[in-house]
Amino acid sequence: MMTELPVWAALIASLLLVCGGLLCLLGAIGLLKMPTFYMRMHSPSMGNTLGTGCILIASIVISSAMAGRPILHELMITLFMVMTAPVSAMMIMRAAIYRTGVHEARRARQSPED
Amino acid sequence: MKRGPFPFVLAIALFVAWLLLNNSLSTGHLLLGAVLAIFFANSSRSWRPLRPKVKHLYVVVGLVFVVLIDIVKSNIMVAKVVLRGITGGGPGLVTIPLDMRDPHGLAILAMILTATPGTVWVDMDRVQGRLVLHILDIHDEAAWVRTIKDRYERPLMEIFE
Amino acid sequence: MNAIVLLDWAAGFAQFCLMAAMTCAGIRLIRGPAAQDRVLALDALYVNGMLSILLLGIRSTSTIYFDMAVLIALFAFVSSMALSKFLLRGEVIEP
Predict the structure, then answer these.
(1) What band does B84 get if pLDDT is binned at 50, 70 and 90?
(2) What are the pLDDT digits (tens) for A25-75?
(3) CB contact set of B76 (below 8 Å; sequence gap of 6+)
(4) How far is A103 from chain C (nearest CA, A)?
(5) Is the Cβ pair A109, B89 closer than 8 Å?
(6) Chain A environment of C63 (Cβ under 8 Å)
(7) Cβ contacts from A onto C, under 8 A
(8) Which pTM was predicted?
(9) Residue A76: closest C-alpha in chain C
């Protein structure tokens, strides 16, 4: 079943998979090593947007190339992530502002603790 | 209870989503999807009495491309910050005066700004139209204000107002 | 045949990256000084887990994994919304 995969599809998909994996890894490394919460907040959204997008496009390319017709149901996950990731990020931000106060977010310019 | 008109766009979106999730175009799924889409769209009428008034639909295409390019660019920026550390002014809050008041436009602006890495929507004062953003690496505060007003707010105002 | 080997390697590399990312998020989940750090790490863990299940589906050319990925994406949204709502208001579903 997997033998009729064309080379161009495999090339595009491999490139996208490597990019997506690296972006997710960078996001998680940023989550681990940044000093304050308000800086950590930004780094997983790299994996949430472009990393997810790359891997889902690769999945669409592979399954469409193997079936010989467009298979688009991975678009549903993309659409769902696009709609939900910002909402949960905003809610976490609001919770953090409520718990620490706005001053913590404002003065975070110089505080290399941790 | 106040009920708006029948939401055709929502019904079509639900129908397409049903077909995509089942990944088939058979008669049974077409019928079931149509029934479910009409039922749920009809029952959602009383939840959202406010309807968006979309004017210039062609601006959406340009806005989508601008947003995609900006997502890629800001991914590269955040990746640089993760690898090399902060190079600009560091993280902080930026206040942006907005002219837009339409709730649908503001919702889409919030989604765009939070989806691009490096910026997160914090709070919005809807009376005075002041938006507070948290930005990972502020190089130039005025440049951020200009970018957001020119690149996102103006197309959204053309679409919704 | 070469195309499949290339694709398998790329998918394996991406899976390795996602495993490392999940480890980082797990460490942050255990260590995180404040509760909001833990919620953020849980959200990242969910997204990376969803992507690695999707990669399993790519490697084994099976469509069953897609449904699980949709479910995990749903759980990620619901759980991080519920946890941050709890941090924000002290209650998840308010009367």
Answers:
(1) confident
(2) 999 998 888 888 888 888 888 888 888 989 999 988 888 888 777 778 888
(3) none
(4) 16
(5) yes
(6) 63
(7) 172
(8) 0.86
(9) C70
Q: How many other β-carbons are positioned within 10 Å of the β-carbon of residue C38?
A: 17
Q: Which residue of A has its CA nearest to C70?
A: A77
C33-57 pLDDT, tens digit each: 888 899 999 999 999 999 999 899 8
Pairing of strands B119-125, B130-135: antiparallel
Residue pair C80/C39 in contact (Cβ under 8 Å)? The answer is yes
Name the residue among B83, B90, B114 with its Cβ closest to that of A109: B90
ipTM comes to 0.86
In degrees to the nearest 10, what's the CA dihedral of B117, B118, B123, B124? -80
Helices (H) then strands (E): counts for chain A: 6, 0
- d(Cα C49, Cα C73) in Å, to the nearest integer? 9
What does the alpha-carbon distance between residue A66 and residue B60 come to, in Å, rounded to a whole number?
33
Alpha-carbon gap, residue B102 to A66, rounded angstroms: 45
CB contacts of A24 in chain C (<8 Å) are 17-18, 21, 47-48, 51
Q: What angle do CA C92, C94, C95 make, to 5 degrees?
A: 150
